[in-house]
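DM from R.C. (forwarded with permission)

"hey, sorry to bug you on a friday — could you get me a structure for this? deadline for the figure draft is monday and I only need the backbone to look sensible"
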Amino acid sequence: MKSFILFVVSSILLFTACKKDPELVVVTDNSAPYYGEVPTVKLENYINRIFIDLIGREPLDAEMQAETANLRASDISIASRETLITKLQTDTTYIVGDSSYKHAYYNRFYELCKARTLEAASNSVISSEAGIFKNGAKQDSIAGDSLNFELAKNKINKLYEVIDCEEDYRMDSMEVKDVFAQMLDNAIYDKINMNSFNFINAAFNDLFFRFPTSNEFNAAYEMVEYDRTAILLGAAGQSKGDCIQVLVNSKEFYEGVIRWMYLNLLAREPTTAEIYTAMQTFYTDHDVQKLQLDIMKLDEYANF
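My reply, with the result:
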């Protein structure tokens, strides 16, 4: 019996030792997705979403038919998606109701910036606020109060700069950081976030999606409240305006824009890898339109 058991064990060991290593399995069904199989309803939803996100409205029937045909003709390739996205961002052909796609795009972006910082204050509200300061400036002028007159003029100018920044950004006379600097440096933002404590916390949260550390807050407070020189995020400043410039010129500002785009377009935070990849170009070119394009051409955005 013992001999039989030894024979069985030896046979098993011999079989195991002689067994070949498993061969490498080659996966053959790993090709790129075939977009010709994307249902029409999904394709139309994608086009609809692009129009709403970029110019704030759904496509007209004629636009939907044309863009659906264009994408189908190119097998919904990445290049054809880029063409549609870029057209809505840059095309200056006259369109009834929009002036042009480019005009509608920059108006949409401007409104999104105000929604992020100014509780979506309309331009009429901004103008009304400027009118209040105009009346005050007139009274100061009559009374010979030159100091308050100049202060009122400064507030009026900053409010109109908020209105003007839509066109200035569209005409490439300012960058996205300048748009946000003006969104933070005006009487309406101050009214929403009264006093230096609230202003500093709101500015960090609006731009960086976080609140300042105690050291950051103390440095910013020295600038904003007392006009004292302090070091914030590695840069020096000694006024409220300086504080804003330090924030919008920081690397974290551009990371904040990336996070904002992902949250708006994909309803999620970007991964660390996605932020790193986007920052390779965005930190130097500051091209928001390219950042949007890179997100909106993805299958994840299209829901394919």
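R.C.: lifesaver. The longest helix spans residues 146-170.
me: no worries. The chain is about 70% helix and 0% strand.
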